[in-house]
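Note to self: the last two entries modelled the partners one at a time, which told us nothing about the interface. This time every component goes in together.
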Amino acid sequence: MIMKFPRGKISGVHLVIPKNEVRFDSEVDQYNFTNAQSKKLKLVMGYDRRRVVASDTSSSDLVIAGFKSLIDAKELDLSSVDAMVLITQTPDYLMPGTSFVVHGALPFKKDMVCIDINQGCSGFISGMTTALSLLWQENINRVAVVNVDVLSRLVGAGDRNSRPIIGDAASITIVDDSVNSNDITALNYIDGSGWDALMIPAGGMKIRPSSETKKLTQDQNGNVRCLDDLVMKGDAVFNFVLREVPALVEEILSEAKVMKDDVDFFIFHQPNPFMLKKLANKLEIPIEKMPHKLVSHYGNSSGVTIPAVLCTNFEKNDFVKPKKLCFAGFGVGLSWGSLVIDIENPMFMSVMEF
Amino acid sequence: MKIKLLDAIREIRPDLEFDGSVDFALHGVLDSLDIVLLVDEIEATLGIEIEVSQINPDVFSSFVTLLAYLNESSQR
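The predicted structure of the combined assembly is written out below.
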C-alpha cells in the first residue's frame, strides 16, 4: 500500500548498543563449521563481531538508558513527546506493552499516546508510517519511534543459521511535525501466508513454555534449537528477500517520482553483506550508496538496523544539506516496506553503549 | 564446467559424498548458508555472476538444473 505524507521530518536518531561484544571466532566450535566454511562465512556473510545484552537485560532497559542519555545531553525534553510508538519482538512481558514500562520509568506526560507494535526487520518502516500518520492529529506534534530487540536471548546456542549474526540494540527516532517541500512516500506489503518463516514457536498462547518446549532438537541442516528459540526457515526468507525487495524499491521510487541517482543513500535492513550486495547489483545501485557492513561490527538487530546504519555511518553534520534517503525493511510476517524521505539538520544522530 | 561445479560444491560441502552420478538433488541438501557460499564460490572460480532472480529453488533444485543455468549463462 502506497502512502504519502506531506508533513513530518526526522529530527534525531539515537542508537543504543550493548557494550558486550561476542566474536565469531570465540564461539565457532559450537556450530560445527569446517575451517574453510568459517573463513568463507566471515568473508561472505559478515560473521565477525556482534553486540549482545547480558542475560538479565531486557528491551526496556536499553530504551530507558537511551532516553535518559538524550535527557542528560539536553537533546530531548520528554514533555514535548506526544506519542511513543515502540516496535519490538522481544517485549519485557506478554502484558503490559513495553512502551508502558518505558513510560512509567521516565517523566513522560500522561496526556500522550503509547502504541506497541510486534514487528521485526521491517519494524522501522512500520513505526515511521505509524508516526507519520499520528502527526495528522492536531495535538500530536512529536512522536518517538522506538525500535528495540534483544533477540540474542532467544536464539539457540547451536543455531548456525541465525546465532552468528544476531545482535541486540535499541533506537529512538524523533519524528516532528513539519511542512515538507517533498512528500514522504511509504510503501508497505504483507504476505501472512509466510507467517511461520520466522517465528518463536513457544511462549505465546498457542504453545505455553514448559519443560517440553526446552528440549533441544537438531534439524537436517545441523541447527540445534528448542521451541522457545527463534526459528528461521533460511531458504524461504532468502528467496522472499531476493524476489520482493528489488520490486519494492523500484515501485517506491516510481511512486515518489525519484530517480535512483537522486537518492543519496539506500539504507536497507542488514541481513548480511551477501544479500545487500546482490540487491545493490540487481537494482544497479553503486554499493558505495548502500552501507552494508553493520552486521560484521554489531550484528543484525532486526528492526533497529536501519537507524543503526544511520547512526554508525553518519553524523548530524552530514545532513546540514538535505539528503534524500531510501529506507527498506523486510522480514517476519512476511512483511516488506520502504520509505523515501529527506533528512535535513537533525538535532542529533548519536550512538551510546549500555 | 561439470567438473568445476562439482569442485565448487565439494569446496563448500566437503562432507557430501557423490556416487559418480551428477544427477543429484541440491534442494533439501544445501541450506541457505550453503547456497550463499556456493554462489560466491561459483562467481569466484567460474567467473559467472549469478543474477538475484536466478538464486531460486528452480535453479538450485539439482546439480543438473544448476549446471544448465551456468552453461546458458556462460554462453551469453
